[in-house]
Amino acid sequence: MVVPPPHKVGCWVVPLGLLVGVAVGVALTTWASAESLYVASAVRTAPALPLQATPLRRLEDPNPLYRLRSGPPPAKPQAKHPGVGPKGPRQTAEDVGSSHHWGFAALLGMSMSALWLALRHPQAAMAEAERELSAVYTPTAPQKLALFAATGAKVIKPKIRGFICTTAHPTGAAAKVQKEIQYVKANPPAAAGPKKVLIIGASTGYGLSTRIATTFGYGASTIGCFFERPSERNKPASAGWYNSVAFEKAAHAAGLYATSINGDAFSDEIKAQTVERIKQDLGQVDLVVYSLASPVRVDPVDNVMYRSVLKPIGQSFENRTLLTDKDQVSTVKLEPASEQEIQDTVKVMGGEDWERWINALSAGGVLAEGAKTVAYSYIGPEMTWPVYWSGTIGQAKKDVEGTASRITAAGACTAYTAVAKAVVTQASSAIPVVPLYITLLFKVMKEKGTHEGCIEQMVRMLGTRLYPAEGGVVTDDEGRIRVDDWEMAADVQEAVAAKWNTIETETLDQDSDYAGYQADFLELFGFGLEGVDYEQPVEVDLPMPSFAPQGESRRAALLGMLAPAAALLGPGAPADAESYVKSLGLRGQTNVDVAGYQRTASGLQILEARLGEGEKVVQVGDRVELELTGRLAGKNGLYFFNTNQTGEPVEYTVGDPNMIAGFTEGLLGMKEKGIRRLVVPEGLGYPDPLEFPGPIPDPVDYAFREEVKSVVNTNSRDCTLVFDVKVVKIRRR
């Protein structure tokens, strides 16, 4: 047998290895189930994709692989005399090149074979990958760290600040969703119900439980709207994001339609997008659930941000409360709201947006004949009325009831408000007095066997009130659907009142169900669920199943497996990730067109990372001071503008005729300290032909200007621009 010399072998080993590896990978991904592919894409798509589709909280490079590749590769060591080293024979340059070829081909083949493991057992994938890689390559400590960071796996613990938790656990969220699904299956409805449902505010609390109950109780197809944060830079996503991922996976596994839209539900853009989705996928809906809870709202008509307040009306209010961050029974005193604060609270939490949704759905022709719509509300006992039902929030809830009457009178559908019982939600945790009331209420109702959580409430509301086995919708004399009846029972309220004035910090655990309150609070964020090992690292970057087409998920799965291997190979690897992107048929900007962005009529896409502060919003003619980064989608996310490097903000006059149209449009409506990502398509960006100086933003470096011109003037690449903008100062002229 004739063995070819090493440098000859190198000519065909790499092509053959690539061909076999890619063929095996494609075969495996075709065979694997769709659910596994979504998991595989989460193993790490982000490092290989130049434009990460998640919001940036700080204006800096989101991709660690860019930093790993900075600078030219180190030169290969050269021997003074070919074939001889200081301690004996050494490899020639040809031998070194050949060993790199063999190493790269072997590593690529093993990466492809490891894809099967990642698809079926993502938690074990990286341990197996590292074991196999070590047979041909021993990474340095920083390279090991980069590989681990690229996978996105980490141990997540609850971090609580006041009445919120800043972390969420994806496995715990999935366990909570599954627990609610099992309850629905164990308590099937007695009559037929909705079949095509839109839930506005579908990611947490009563909205999520309604989605679960309609899907797994009635077999309904659902569209859920919410505004949640995906994972970014290996940080956990929001609890609502993980809840929705778990729900969609469960619904799809059961063969049920479920899709989601992530964006500001108050905006006209999200309403229009939802109408189009219904037209395309469902035709019409027969139930619309409105379950939004937000402290702020930007009115799409006047573009003003309104803020709600939790205050009494007319006079100050003092009562007992529970400081959950200190485990302490205390006293709270609240000053009365101003007339402007009352109006603003009604603007945010009243019925105006619900009515705008129904009008948009009606105008789009997507409300089925006989359709119903429900908005959730709360009344509570008299002890909470000064801060709730008789306060600013109560004014908003009364406006919701008035809105129900107007919607019904308009004739497009029949509207109801559904009054639910007090439960632990992110919203209720923030209301003074209410947490102490809930801890006392839980103890009494659990002792009486009448306690319910969100899912129990929604199953009962749908099955016995909105779609009862006999008769029509069950309401009280005011036309409200009531599922707070067990809470408001006289014996329950008497027992709560008996403890209200005597409970103290020292008797908190004895006289109330504070432990149950805390457990429910942690469950909101995926913690404290039975059967979940919270000491094990978990993947934090979970894609929303309905956001990615199946074919794209397959390519993303391949790309995600190749990226860590490329990071470890170092100098022996291809020069940049763009070659991987091209070889797999992905373009650098494919992951920016996601539901988390609001698409304007012009085609501009906006991601609202931070709303900002103050009353002023950017208008045409304003002089603005900005922190700004600009990148070229067609050059693998190459920066051409970055104030983080110069250390100085830039100033522009909004509406300057030299400013590119997409940049001007994207700045409008921003507030000071607000942050947006703008995805500017061709036609709203730089003109063709392009010459600098002229168009704004003007790259500050000659080399960057030439890069931009090479993209725009040659039309050889995608001309999409991505800007991350922070408004530092607004100066009104």
What structural keywords apply?
733 residues, alpha/beta, Rossmann fold, Chitinase A, domain 3, 3 domains, 7-stranded parallel β-sheet, 7-stranded antiparallel β-sheet, 24 strands, 41% helix, 16% strand, globular, disordered N terminus
Topology:
Elements: H1 6-31, H2 34-44, H3 64-68, E1 84-85, E2 88-89, H4 93-120, H5 122-133, H6 141-151, E3 153-154, E4 160-161, E5 164-165, H7 170-186, E6 196-200, H8 205-218, E7 221-226, H9 239-253, E8 258-262, H10 268-281, E9 285-290, E10 296-298, E11 305-307, E12 317-323, E13 328-334, H11 339-349, H12 352-363, E14 367-377, H13 392-410, E15 414-419, H14 434-448, H15 454-466, E16 481-482, H16 490-500, H17 508-511, H18 514-523, E17 538-539, H19 550-569, H20 578-583, E18 598-599, E19 605-610, E20 623-632, E21 638-642, H21 643-646, E22 650-653, H22 661-667, E23 675-680, H23 702-714, E24 721-731
Parallel strand pairs: 6-7, 6-9, 7-8, 9-14, 14-15, 15-16
Antiparallel strand pairs: 1-2, 3-17, 4-5, 10-11, 12-13, 18-19, 19-23, 20-21, 20-22, 20-24, 23-24
Helix pairs in contact: 1-4, 2-4, 2-19, 4-5, 4-19, 6-19, 7-8, 7-9, 8-9, 8-15, 11-13, 12-13, 14-16, 14-18
